[in-house]
Design a protein that fits this description.
two-stranded antiparallel ribbon; single chain; 49% helix; 6-stranded mixed barrel
Length: 279
């Protein structure tokens, strides 16, 4: 894999990552969203959203220019959020020598292996590392986790999610606590005439459910069209499983925070309310 200066059609120069492979099953994309896999020299599969079928891509450098034709597209296959092209190994070698004419050999970045059905990926990597002290075998998931920059980005998002999970219950709890304090006299009167505490608490939780659920539904509806867009070179996506997970989590946290306000309802003493005592 390498990053090269390319020109797509008549556009200005830009950067793109090239992945060259000897065996498509190990180095090519898992699936295509359009078109076909390369079948002849000079053909490539490009990352969807960055390239279109039929694009002519020129890899430019101090050496000769290498021309590639995009015959297929694949989704979610960018390297470091850069436009990415999958090409056969001879085309990758030609692109590398165009970029660096003095290169006598083009070594591979990685060696891909696939276990037989009776061997797990983890067991195979362990065996390879035992066999050679120079090898650093990783499963596909481990390689993705250890890619440069992944840890920093993941930590940043985890911090955002943590703050998000703290802010929602605090804001929700404070909102319903204020509402409860504003309705203290009405709640005191209801307790004085015999309204059970459970009924008042359930009413409060129903209000919290309507407000939080409505906010989550509105946020989801607003996010769906935005998820079809791009932020710079990063394509967003709508993941129903992730949306459902965060919706349930935020709804649960919001209802739990509303229980703080519910304790205020439970603290109202009917006897004191009847005799004019405070709540």
């Amino acid at each position: 894999q390498g990053t090269f200066t390319v020109v797509v059609g008549d556009a200005a120069q830009s950067s793109a990552a090239l992945i060259g492979y000897e065996k498509r099953q190990l180095g090519g994309p898992d699936r295509l969203s359009a078109g076909r896999m390369p079948a002849a020299p000079g053909e490539a599969v490009g990352s969807a959203g960055d390239f279109s079928l039929g694009d002519r891509v020129r890899v430019v450098g101090p050496g000769k220019t290498v021309e590639l034709s995009v015959v297929g597209l694949t989704d979610n296959a960018r390297i470091q959020v850069s436009p990415t092209l999958f090409v056969a190994w001879p085309d990758y070698v030609a692109a590398t020598r165009a970029f660096n004419p003095d290169a006598k050999t083009v070594p591979p970045s990685v060696i891909g292996v696939r276990p037989v059905p009776v061997v797990s990926a983890g067991a195979l990597t362990t065996q390879i590392n035992k066999t050679s002290a120079d090898a650093d075998a990783l499963t596909r998931d481990q390689a993705a986790e250890k890619a440069p920059g992944v840890a920093a980005v993941r930590n940043s998002f985890n911090l955002i999610f943590l703050l998000f999970a703290l802010v929602v219950p605090l804001v929700t709890g404070l909102f319903f606590l204020i509402i409860t304090l504003q309705k203290a006299r009405a709640l005191t009167l209801l307790r004085a005439i015999g309204a059970p505490a459970g009924v008042l608490v359930r009413s409060l939780l129903v209000q919290a459910l309507i407000i939080i659920g409505g906010g989550i539904a509105l946020g989801t509806l607003l996010f769906f069209p935005l998820s079809q867009a791009k932020v710079g070179k990063l394509s967003l996506s709508f993941d129903p499983a992730a949306v459902l997970f965060w919706a349930v989590l935020l709804l649960t946290l919001g209802l739990l925070s509303a229980l703080v306000a519910a304790r205020r309802v439970l603290a109202i003493d009917p006897v004191q309310a009847t005799t004019g005592g405070g709540a």
